[in-house]
């Protein structure tokens, strides 16, 4: 019996002391606020109005106790994990299948900027693989958030890891002194905006009867969380690239001698 190993001799007498020990611990409360970005939520509808798919997280509110991803019990808990812990779509789906209450994904601090010159290619490949996994799963009612790494969040992760490493005996013995973290998002569920489709069309006419090349782009940002989009996926930069392509091609279409055999 594990009690005999933990308390050799008169363990019943030892256990009688535990409640008194717990009651002597002065409870303390502290709070730490940090910005978090919810994962995308959108519906995809094809030309066939009956063909509609939902993606992302459809729930925003969070009020769960924190746990490390390797904890034995994460059901109805807020799992705090690093982005680089997501090694594949399967690994992330297996986490969601355990029914966590919510997920907080910590982004590496260097991702605050777009300067990745000091980041190894292996790390960049890991980030790309993690985002592919996050962009490719069906709609879920599990709230999923992102936040940048900070000293406070690193400490919280270490304390959650220590909590998950406790055995059954240790969990009982140190129940009164264990550090617990409650995560909450108090904002209201955002309203679903009505879709408003705007189309801007321009064309360069080639020779009559020539084949047509269609160049399209989206005007919105696209990423696991739209507010965190970087590079060509942010700030409608795709539209700017398309306009630059149109400007360059228009110089060829002005003169008949350089006009391409396409529209």
UniProtKB/TrEMBL annotation:
Q: Which N-terminal residues, if any, form the signal peptide? A: 1-30
- Among its keywords, does the record have Transmembrane? yes
Which locations, inside or outside the cell, does it occupy?
Endoplasmic reticulum membrane
**Membrane topology term:** Single-pass membrane protein
| Transmembrane spans | none
> Mind listing the UniProt keywords for this protein, alphabetically?
Endoplasmic reticulum, Glycoprotein, Membrane, Signal, Transmembrane, Transmembrane helix
This protein's GO CC annotations: endoplasmic reticulum membrane
Chief localization: endoplasmic reticulum
Query: At the top level of its lineage, which domain of life is listed?
Result: Eukaryota
Among its keywords, does the record have Manganese? no
Query: What's a single GO BP term from this record?
Result: regulation of signal transduction
Return the similarity comment.
Answer: Belongs to the nicastrin family.
What is the name attached to this protein's record? Answer: VWFA domain-containing protein
Provide the species name: Oikopleura dioica
């Amino acid at each position: 019996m594990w009690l005999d190993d933990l308390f050799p001799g008169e363990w019943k007498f030892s256990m009688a002391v535990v409640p008194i020990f717990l009651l002597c611990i002065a409870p303390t409360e502290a709070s730490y606020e940090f910005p978090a970005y919810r994962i995308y939520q959108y519906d995809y509808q094809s030309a066939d109005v009956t063909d509609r798919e939902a993606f992302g997280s459809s729930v925003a509110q969070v009020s769960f106790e924190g746990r490390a991803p390797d904890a034995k019990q994460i059901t109805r808990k807020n799992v705090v994990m690093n982005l680089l812990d997501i090694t594949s779509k399967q690994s992330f789906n297996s986490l969601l299948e355990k029914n966590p209450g919510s997920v907080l994904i910590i982004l590496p601090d260097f991702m605050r900027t777009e300067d990745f010159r000091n980041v190894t290619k292996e790390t960049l490949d890991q980030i790309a693989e993690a985002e592919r996994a996050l962009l490719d799963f069906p709609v879920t009612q599990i709230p999923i958030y992102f936040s940048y790494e900070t000293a406070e969040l690193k400490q919280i992760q270490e304390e959650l890891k220590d909590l998950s490493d406790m055995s059954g005996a240790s969990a009982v013995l140190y129940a009164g002194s264990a550090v617990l973290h409650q995560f909450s998002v108090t904002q209201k569920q955002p309203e679903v905006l009505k879709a408003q489709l705007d189309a801007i069309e321009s064309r360069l006419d080639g020779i009559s009867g020539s084949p047509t090349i269609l160049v399209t782009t989206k005007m919105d940002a696209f990423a696991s969380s739209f507010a965190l989009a970087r590079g060509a996926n942010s700030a409608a930069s795709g539209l700017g690239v398309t306009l630059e392509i149109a400007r360059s091609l228009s110089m060829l279409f002005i003169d008949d001698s350089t006009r391409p055999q396409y529209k």
